Structures
1.
Amino acid sequence: MKTIQSIVLSVMLLGGLSFSTCSKAHASGNPEYVKVKAISTEIREKINFPVELADQGLNEKVVVEFQVSAEKKVKVVSVETKNEFLKTYVKNQMETMELENYQGFEGKTMQISLFFAN
């Protein structure tokens, strides 16, 4: 049953990513927009809903500013949320992941909004 709950809760994790230095990233035909969308999708797929918060009525937005190195590593610049556990959890999750869709964005600051709800 816990496995099913984790899968269902993971599906509820939503996110959006913005590239803070690109004002034209919103046009769907723009290659930068496509790349930003790929990065956003990859991050959402790699961050699971925290099991420790599965039984709480959670409805929390987490905004993360980050950079990706040429070695595919994520460096978190800042995390904004009211939930301190979630803040630490998201920071740790992001800093241990390697991104495949980072090319062209090395060292640039990006921002993702993640929504955790159960």
2.
Amino acid sequence: MKKILFLLLGFLMLQTANAQLQPQLENPDAEPNCKMIRNNSFLNREPNGKNTPDYQIVFSDGFVTEYLEGGKYYVRTKVTFTSPCEYTSTVVEVTKPHFSIKVGDTFRTTILATSTANGLIKIKIQMNGTTNFIILEQIKKS
């Protein structure tokens, strides 16, 4: 019985630590506004609140293009929505030499939360057995 309690306590501590590592949204919507991701451009918001330098992601016409190093390189994926808040992506083009992502790689993305007022989207990306949580910040249209 002591072992079970110890294992349960360890599991709960890991879950709490994992939840604290996940980025959080300011002013989240009551329900995710999943349409917000379609046909928009975003920056990657890092846990420190700053945006990843020289990185942009554009959702347009069933494709996602991630621009790296200020647009010098890009990764393009074909997107298929499996539900309003989930999509799978298949990499169709990579221009950065020796990059870890290759043509044909697939991954699954889930929109977990949005903050329409702040132009933020929290997503979960699953690829090659790893899971990452990312916050995208919508680029304001002028």
3.
Amino acid sequence: MTFYVTDQKTVVIALLVFGAAAGILRDTVLAWRRLVPTGKIAEFFQDILLCLSLVSAYHMIAFVTNYGYVRWYGIASTFAGFFLYRATLSPLVLRLACIGVRLVIMTVSFILCPVRVLILLLVKCAAGIGRFTTACILRLDSQRKRKRLLRLSAMGF
């Protein structure tokens, strides 16, 4: 397994791009947290999941491009790509991610709103049917009582 200098250039460029992609993923998670507040425990597990996914993706890239070896320039180029992204494009992507997450939330609520209205309509119909049947039962019961009272009064009681 030989590893040439020309391969190192390709690996550095690939890991720079990976560092920028990691920054985009981090900003997307931050945008989600801003729009959908969660508790501290949920944020902790989100951070752990993000770190584990990025480390596993880095090791997959190292396995494919570096023949399974983790080299220092690979780690340095990943951090360089991440911090270059953070210094240049992060505010723009964070705004776009907030807009995207808000759009997803609005789309889901738009889809679920008619379902919610349908459920409320069904509940109101069921309540109306229940009130109607109760009123009919009470009316029949009061008519029976009146007839009984008329019979009793006709008998002289």
4.
Amino acid sequence: MGRILSVVGLPLLLVGCGGGETGFQNTKDDATGAQGNGIAEFTPTEVEITDMNWEEGVSSTAVIKVTNIGDAILQIYRYRLTDSADGIFYAEDAEALELSPDSSREFIVGATLNTFDQAFGEARIDTSDPDNLNVYIPLTATPRDWEDEGGDDSGDGGGSDSGT
């Protein structure tokens, strides 16, 4: 009886453990692809929102444009603010976008100043471009008349010398 069980049981055990589907695939998810590269171009590389009406708290916006100048699909994994300067800068996060060659996507970043002071923040864009995997774009918000209020920078000292 024990011999019959081992003769019948062993093949069943081997069938149960052999070559079944594991759910894993033997494929390569390569950012560059076999047919070319998605290459990201960012304009501008620094965002400056100027002449802001801080007295009335009026918001202003700017655009960050990502263009695929390569010859294959460019993946944009994520766009987000990494430093909002305590909420002065705002943007809608984006994830999992694809750009075909010669196409672009614009991301809006906004700012609202409530005081007469500059604010500094940062946006981050993660792509499949091997040379631009994680790009950080500095953000600056400047109130109206900021340079005029910054003082005289002419170097003449601002005083008079009577020579006496």
